[in-house]
Amino acid sequence: MAPEAAFDVTCSDVNSAVAGVLGASVGGEKDVLGLTSTPIWYPGPAQYMMQQAGGIACSAGDPVQLDPDATSPADWSIAVVPGAQAIIDGAAERGASDIPGDGIRCFTGSCTIELRDGDVLMTGSLRSSALVESDADRVREAMAGVLASAVATLRDFEPGQSKIAGARCETLLTAQEASEILGREVVIMDYTELGGWGTAAEIYFASEGAQYCMYATGPDPYGDPTLVALTTLPSGAWAFEKLDAGSPVSLTGADAALTGVDFYGRTVLDARVGADWLRFTVPVGEDASSVTSVAEATIEHLTRGRPAPQ
User: Fold this and answer.
1) Could you tell me where in the chain the CATH 3.40.1000 domains are found?
2) Helices 136-152 & 11-22, crossing angle to 10 degrees?
3) May I ask the CATH architecture of the domain 169-304?
4) Which domain of life does this protein belong to (predicted)?
5) 41 and 30 in contact (C-beta within 8 Å)?
């Protein structure tokens, strides 16, 4: 089951607040981060990062799979997490372009949310044709009420045990090992080259020790194709069990595994290994035939370590 949040606020409270702002429920509410207009590494483990930090993640309006030619009338995604000061300090230290918790910005059709009350942080966005620039104060009032309830019930949170937390990509699978499996020259691409640092990156990568490993043909994130990528959720076995799509497969070293297709239409292989969740993703158009071998080698290094040099 999901970790108990560090406060008594739930997604029902967030859903009610958003419905009040937009004038109606969007429908399709979920207790995960939304995927519309988010980084490409979000689908899967990263959607549950807020729960692993003692918070909640709530969203609505996402399609099952992205259709670039379709638009939903409204969608939103909001997270509430404890440890605001540590998140803000860490994000600033790592060069965040926007400091978490600095306010509400509304435009025609959308609002971005970055609020702080005490040591609780709220981050997210709303998108609806009903929103206009002058809605900022109304959105702030509604969300401030949710934040105040979280602050009033704040308690300590202890993260779960994990074997993969903080593990480096090179420890799990080296570029040379990936090259031998994939039959192509491979480099491990630096995910920090993908764009600016922010609240989600600070929580996922720095606070939780999660990882995004891109095994690619070169170091350019926008010019060199990624052949296979790995995302992780330390102590995220509970979230793996919530997957409601995919076909069970046998995967050496894993306690359970599923294969399927993600939000972007990419082939994915999900593995539960002890307390952790690992997802291996193959971009559309790339050969997925070797993803099982990549996953099994990674899991072997995680669970058994590497042989000592002779």
Assistant:
1) 169-304
2) 160
3) 3-Layer(aba) Sandwich (3.40)
4) Bacteria
5) no
pLDDT given at position 303: 95
pLDDT, one tens digit per residue, over 86-112 is 999 999 898 877 766 678 999 999 999
DSSP assignment of 151-215 = HHT-----PPP-SSTT--HHHH--HHHHHHHHTS--EEE-GGGGS---HHHIIIIIIS---EEEE
Of 127 and 72, the one with more pLDDT = 127
Q: Which helix (H) or strand (E) holds 17?
A: helix 11-22
Is residue 59 within 8 A of residue 77, CB to CB? The reply is: yes
Contact indicator for 30, 59 with CB cutoff of 8 Å: yes
Residue 297's identity, in one-letter code, is A
Q: Is 173 in contact with 167 (CB distance < 8 Å)?
A: no
Burial of 187 (0-12, 13-18, 19+ CB in 10 A): middle
pTM: 0.94
